[in-house]
């Protein structure tokens, strides 16, 4: 009995010693990392643009449609018996917006008739300034009333009278601002425009481009939804890859993303059939993406159309020239001097100053749609043709091919590739060393990545996980560490897709879930993991012993030369007997007593815990501790199974960064009531 007890104790001791990890971080060696290690990617999926980051509150504001998604009165309802119908008038508002809404006032019994809009499944109504406008054609003497009201009780939260400036045969724009007198108790609200039928001559009025914006991120006109933009800014991102994604390719050859139809006044933007089952307005267009870059200090990674549609059709070699010209025009529009033709067009829209553009990606996932023929055409002539033309005119631009060396493309340096792993967490664990073999000539962007399938073999035929989940996030941390260790050859890394409107979505695993109600914005487990890793920059990696991982622990170390701090990032996967791993990190050259801040993330609900927008919970438990280097200069701490940690000698650095960014929303929302500072 006594002997047995002794043996068990000895074994437990032995096990603990075996699992402990002693890491030494050298003070010299290593590599300078990319200056854009982590970023954002925008794809109009899940109403991420319209009804999402694009702050417009009115759904179907300009009756845009296409063969795929016919024009309709979706979102609109009549008030007091007004007759609503779609008309393609012989004098439309614009060439881009041929359809409008005709409102018949056949009864003068009611003092007020009109219409309301449901918004993108509700509207957040608060005591703040809303900016609106609408076009009317017809003759009306009197005032319009624009109001925000409850869809449940019809209670009016705020309204404003807008004097009619109508003229019989002209489209006349009416503008207004509106500040509700109270916050609505829920987001079940509508926006209405009403008017007195007695003032209408001719029996009806025509309306188009009916728009309403709440305050936007950094106060931009036609700007971004504030809480979502602030959640992005809190990731301290360095680049934005846009406009897609599949959205760039379009559903067929007739409907690619056309940059020149997304610029200028909203009335000149026709919108387009998206590839995710809805029409998009293109209110969030090329200039708005560049403003987004300006406002978050992001390097634009502009993806240009490469002649492949999502249905697999592609442009033949003999027909490619106009598309190359179009791409060069787009680049010139962004960065050309105002004296160039496209720079002049930009200046005419109010933007004389060229934007900086250093990264251009040729297409999106050209290895995928219509393969093998679509990919073969990319390898045979499409990539070369674009690459050659861009390098000739803009030798300083870093061209990125949309496949990567891992998709069987030999990418001619100095061009980079783009790798999109959508994986099981175990895949990220098993492929930790994947990037180690990249040479300086294999520069690779990770333009999209995520854990999407649970471990255990369900592949693309199976469903995606319903939400980002904890072990998925730990797998993503291992992956991010694997990119950062190779940060001299990995250009940048971004999760995708980032946004999911819970009222209409096509892809379930997204960094942030949201709906009209800003209180329901949910930062997923993957958001928390990404944020911890992305907000502690390493500008220069440092060699370590052991070099990168032991059986369960994966790590990277380096220096942040901007604030002269040392940083270590680690992710602990499955451990033996689910035991915590004792870790010791010694930075050569740091003395005893040196302070470092340890931030540790674990799940309160095990590997399958997730943040559920319906519950407003957060399973991610974050602990922050200040550690002191011990006798031998080492920081010691325990990492539980399935945990992610960052050790940073810039103590309080993260908090300082937070304070620098002025926020109206707190950085962590997760279902808790959003208090706004005023
Ligand atoms: C530095 O980069 C080289 C290849 O470019 C790689 O072999 C080496 O492991 C890297 N060192 C560190 C510490 O990241
Ligand atoms: C007014 O006319 C429209 C058709 O133009 C009809 O749909 C609507 O019901 C009518 N309303 C009333 C109150 O008669
Ligand atoms: C009206 O215009 C829309 C585009 O806004 C078009 O799709 C539709 O076919 C047109 N309808 C008619 C009857 O011309
Ligand atoms: C709200 O107004 C609409 C349209 O005027 C009407 O049909 C509805 O009955 C009203 N609802 C309530 C709860 O008053
Ligand atoms: C109010 O809106 C929410 C979505 O935000 C929806 O789930 C709910 O059913 C709505 N309530 C009513 C009574 O319509
Ligand atoms: C490309 O050429 C082939 C063969 O000539 C032809 O069948 C095909 O329709 C062409 N594709 C396009 C998009 O023009
Ligand atoms: C956009 O560019 C394409 C191709 O360069 C051209 O065919 C089209 O007319 C342009 N559209 C507008 C609205 O200028
Ligand atoms: C990396 O680049 C080198 C040099 O261009 C090339 O030979 C090699 O095939 C590339 N690696 C991969 C995995 O394609
Ligand atoms: C490091 O991780 C890889 C999986 O990515 C694994 O194959 C290898 O055995 C690990 N190394 C050690 C020392 O555990
Ligand atoms: C890690 O544990 C999970 C269960 O939590 C399991 O699904 C997965 O396959 C394990 N992975 C490895 C590499 O051991």
From TrEMBL:
<protein>
    <recommendedName>
        <fullName>non-reducing end alpha-L-arabinofuranosidase</fullName>
        <ecNumber>3.2.1.55</ecNumber>
    </recommendedName>
</protein>
<keyword id="KW-0378">Hydrolase</keyword>
<feature type="signal peptide">
    <location>
        <begin position="1"/>
        <end position="20"/>
    </location>
</feature>
<dbReference type="InterPro" id="IPR010720">
    <property type="entry name" value="Alpha-L-AF_C"/>
</dbReference>
<feature type="domain" description="Alpha-L-arabinofuranosidase C-terminal">
    <location>
        <begin position="469"/>
        <end position="643"/>
    </location>
</feature>
<comment type="similarity">
    <text>Belongs to the glycosyl hydrolase 51 family.</text>
</comment>
<dbReference type="InterPro" id="IPR051563">
    <property type="entry name" value="Glycosyl_Hydrolase_51"/>
</dbReference>
<dbReference type="GO" id="GO:0031222">
    <property type="term" value="P:arabinan catabolic process"/>
</dbReference>
<dbReference type="GO" id="GO:0046556">
    <property type="term" value="F:alpha-L-arabinofuranosidase activity"/>
</dbReference>
<dbReference type="Pfam" id="PF22848">
    <property type="entry name" value="ASD1_dom"/>
</dbReference>
<keyword id="KW-0325">Glycoprotein</keyword>
<dbReference type="InterPro" id="IPR017853">
    <property type="entry name" value="GH"/>
</dbReference>
<dbReference type="InterPro" id="IPR055235">
    <property type="entry name" value="ASD1_cat"/>
</dbReference>
<dbReference type="GO" id="GO:0046373">
    <property type="term" value="P:L-arabinose metabolic process"/>
</dbReference>
<keyword id="KW-0732">Signal</keyword>
<comment type="pathway">
    <text>Glycan metabolism; L-arabinan degradation.</text>
</comment>
<dbReference type="Pfam" id="PF06964">
    <property type="entry name" value="Alpha-L-AF_C"/>
</dbReference>
């Amino acid at each position: 009995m006594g002997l047995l007890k002794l043996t068990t104790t000895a074994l437990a001791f032995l096990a603990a010693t075996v699992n402990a990890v002693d890491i030494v971080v050298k003070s010299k060696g290593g590599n300078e990392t990319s200056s854009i290690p982590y970023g954002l990617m925008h794809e109009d999926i899940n109403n991420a643009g319209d009804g999402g980051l694009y702050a417009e509150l009115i759904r179907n504001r300009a009756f845009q449609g296409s063969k795929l998604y016919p024009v309709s009165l979706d979102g609109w309802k009549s008030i007091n018996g007004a007759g609503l119908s779609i008309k393609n008038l012989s004098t439309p508002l614009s060439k881009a917006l041929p359809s409008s809404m005709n409102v018949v006032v056949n009864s003068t019994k009611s003092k007020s008739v009109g219409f309301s809009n449901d918004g993108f499944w509700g509207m957040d109504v608060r005591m703040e300034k809303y900016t609106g406008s609408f076009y009317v054609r017809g003759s009306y003497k009197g005032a319009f009333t624009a109001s925000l009201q409850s869809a449940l009780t019809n209670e009016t939260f705020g309204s404003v009278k807008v004097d009619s400036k109508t003229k019989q045969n002209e489209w006349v724009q009416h503008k207004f601002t509106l500040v509700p007198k109270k916050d609505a108790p829920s987001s079940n609200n509508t926006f209405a425009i009403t008017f007195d039928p007695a003032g209408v001559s001719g029996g009806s009025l025509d309306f188009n481009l009916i728009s309403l914006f709440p305050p936007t991120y950094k106060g931009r006109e036609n700007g971004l939804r504030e809480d979502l933009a602030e959640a992005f800014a809190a990731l301290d991102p360095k680049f934005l890859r846009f406009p897609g994604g599949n959205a760039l390719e379009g559903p067929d050859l007739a409907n690619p993303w056309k940059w020149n139809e997304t610029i200028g006044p909203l009335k000149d933007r026709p919108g387009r059939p998206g590839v995710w089952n809805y029409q998009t307005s293109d209110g969030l267009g090329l200039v708005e993406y560049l403003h987004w870059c300006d406002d978050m200090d992001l390097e634009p990674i502009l993806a240009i159309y490469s002649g492949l549609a999502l249905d697999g059709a592609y442009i033949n070699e003999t027909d490619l020239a106009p598309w190359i010209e179009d791409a060069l025009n787009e680049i010139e529009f962004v960065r050309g001097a105002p004296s160039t033709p496209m720079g002049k067009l930009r200046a005419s829209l109010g933007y004389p100053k060229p934007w900086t553009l250093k990264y251009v990606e040729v297409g999106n996932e050209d290895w995928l749609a219509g393969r093998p023929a679509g990919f073969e055409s990319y390898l045979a002539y499409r990539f070369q043709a674009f690459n050659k033309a861009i390098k000739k005119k803009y030798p300083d631009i870093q061209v990125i091919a949309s496949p990567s060396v891992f998709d069987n493309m030999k990418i001619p340096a100095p061009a980079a590739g783009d790798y999109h792993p959508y994986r099981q967490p175990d895949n990220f664990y098993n492929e930790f060393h994947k990037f180690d073999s990249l040479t300086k000539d294999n520069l690779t962007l990770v333009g999209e990545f995520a854990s999407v399938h649970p471990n255990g073999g369900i592949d693309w035929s199976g469903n995606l996980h319903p939400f980002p989940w904890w072990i998925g996030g730990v797998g993503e941390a291992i992956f991010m560490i694997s990119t950062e260790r190779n940060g001299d050859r990995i250009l940048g890394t971004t999760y995708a897709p980032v946004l999911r409107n819970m009222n209409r979505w096509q892809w379930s695993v997204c960094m942030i879930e949201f709906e009209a109600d800003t209180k329901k914005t949910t930062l997923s487990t993957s958001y928390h993991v990404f944020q911890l890793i992305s907000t502690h920059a390493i500008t220069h990696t440092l060699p370590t012993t052991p070099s990168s991982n032991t059986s369960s622990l994966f790590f990277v170390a380096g220096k942040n030369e901007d604030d002269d701090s040392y940083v270590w990032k680690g992710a602990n996967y499955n451990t033996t007997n689910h035991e915590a791993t004792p870790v010791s990190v010694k930075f050569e050259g740091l003395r005893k007593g040196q302070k470092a801040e340890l931030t540790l993330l674990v799940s309160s609900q095990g590997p399958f815990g997730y943040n559920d927008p319906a519950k407003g919970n957060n399973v991610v438990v974050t602990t922050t501790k200040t550690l002191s280097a011990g006798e031998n200069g080492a920081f010691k701490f325990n990492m539980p199974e399935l945990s992610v940690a960052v050790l940073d000698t810039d103590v309080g650095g993260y908090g300082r960064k937070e304070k620098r960014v002025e926020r109206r929303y707190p950085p962590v929302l997760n279902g808790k009531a959003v208090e706004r500072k005023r």
